[in-house]
Amino acid sequence: MASLHALRARGQSIWLDEIRREWLTNGELARWIERGVTGVTSNPTIFERAITTSPAYDEAIRAHLARDPEMETPALYEALVIEDIRMAADLLRPVYEATEGHDGFVSLEVSPLLAHDTEGTIAEARRLWRAVDRPNLMIKVPATRAGIPAIEALIAEGINVNVTLIFSPAHYEAAAEAYWRGLRRRAEVGKDLGTVASVASFFVSRIDTAVDRLLEEMRAPEARALLGKIAIAVAKRVYRTFRARFLPDAFPELQAEGARAQRVLWASTSTKNPAYSDVKYVEGLIGPDTVNTIPMVTLQAFEDHGQVPGDTVLEGWEEAEADLAALARLGIDLEEILERLQAEGVDAFRRSYNALLEALERKRAMVLTAVRSMDD
Questions:
Q1: Residues facing residue 263 across a β-bridge
Q2: How far apart are CA 250 and CA 243, in angstroms?
Q3: H-run or E-run covering 219
Q4: DSSP letters spanning 91-155
Q5: Among 210, 263, 208, which Cα is nearest to 230's?
Q6: Do the Cβ atoms of 298 and 271 come closer than 8 Å?
Q7: pLDDT > 90? residue 273
Q8: Who contacts 367 (Cβ-Cβ below 8 Å, separation ≥6)?
Q9: Mean pLDDT score across all residues of the chain
Q10: What is the structure's pLDDT at 21?
């Protein structure tokens, strides 16, 4: 039986890619922190699933509407989310302090409706940062063309950023450059670099889902030999770039001023294909100076039967490059696939956000009807 502490010993942090009100109040998250979880991530899909399927939010909804019957649905959503994020941040605050700001973060995403709006993203990130008011908060900003300048601006202001929806090495390079530029701007005005942190969230399993579909259509032995290999191959290329850019000798002039590396975070690490191991994207991406954010079901699977064979993300780089070259020879345009995956990711979060607001509006209407009936 593998433990999260074994991953920690190899320099990898494990964050829970899920949040639910009942886990915050019944001790579930606290117990996972004791077992080695050192952070929490969220996104619109996670909150849609949590708020629409759990009765744990009903009392809070009633309380908010009792205080303010005119509260609109988006404001109600934000109030519920901020409560969750604050509670999670407070539970993780001892980790944040014990690691001197290296770990213990909770991530909250700006509205996916702003994914192509730079100024709107900056304004919302600032507002959420002030509203949550916790030093161990990270604001999630997508690595879209509009998101990249927003990331730079927020880092320059000292706002922690989780750069999300990274699917390609090009996306990663843009995110790393934005972080670098933000730090430089901050240094130029004499601000403390040690108080700001960032991670670059690379989405893994969705790549295999998309590429495998094309490989299976080909049916050639060369194609079938690449099934299930491309996502980790791209991840290893990203990790190699990270090491070249951010390890101590890569930016000594900023590190001397307290700057931290922008760690790579492996996201979308639940296995989508039942033919593959349910811990494939945990066991295959172990390595120093990384984060793996894992949904609860995958976390439980890893604790049950996962293995820690070594620093697997440091192994097989030549093989990974050979697999990517073989994919190109088959005529598959990987870059086009990765760009499309990012666009689809933005759309999926937007749909989740809208679906959540629609469901919350129905709950809001039911609560207000019940309150008015009692008043009558």
A1: 199
A2: 8
A3: none
A4: HHHHHHHHTTTSS-EEEEEPPGGGTT-HHHHHHHHHHHHHHH--TTEEEEEE-STTHHHHHHHHH
A5: 208
A6: yes
A7: yes
A8: 58, 61, 62, 65
A9: 94
A10: 96
What is the distance between the alpha carbons of residues 352 and 49, in angstroms, rounded to a whole number? 9
Residue 165, amino acid: L
pLDDT of residue 257: 86
Contact 304, 1 (CB under 8 A): yes
Question: By three-state DSSP, how is residue 165 classified?
Answer: strand
| Contact between 261 and 247 (Cβ < 8 Å) | yes
**Average pLDDT rounded to a whole number, residues 10-19:** 97
Domain boundaries, the chain: 4-207+235-313+342-368
DSSP-based helix, strand, coil % in the chain, nearest 5: 60, 10, 30
249 pLDDT band, cuts 50/70/90, is: low
Pairing state between β 290-294 and 37-40: unpaired
Pair 299, 41: CB distance under 8 Å = no
State both tokens at 337.
Answer: 């696939």
Structure tokens at 107: 């991530």
Residue 250 near residue 244, CB atoms below 8 Å: yes
Is 140 known to be catalytic? yes
Q: Which amino acid is at 367?
A: V
Output 220 or 138, whichever has higher pLDDT. 138
H-only helix segments in 247-333: 252-255, 280-283, 296-305, 317-329
Distance CA 208, CA 358 (A): 32
Model pLDDT, residue 245: 87
3-class SS at 200?
strand
* Res. 7: pLDDT tops 70: yes
Residue 134 in this model has a pLDDT that exceeds 80: yes
Rg of the chain, C-alpha, whole Å:
21
Pairwise pLDDT comparison (184 vs 219), residue with the higher score: 184
CATH architecture of 4-207+235-313+342-368: Alpha-Beta Barrel (3.20)
Provide the 10 A C-beta neighbour count for residue 304. 11
In this prediction, residue 309 has a pLDDT band, given cuts at 50, 70 and 90, of very high
Contact 48, 353 (CB under 8 A): yes
Q: At what angle do helices 44-53 and 73-98 cross, to 10 degrees?
A: 110
CB 159 within 8 A of CB 191: no
Q: Which amino acid is at 298?
A: T
What pLDDT was estimated at residue 154?
98
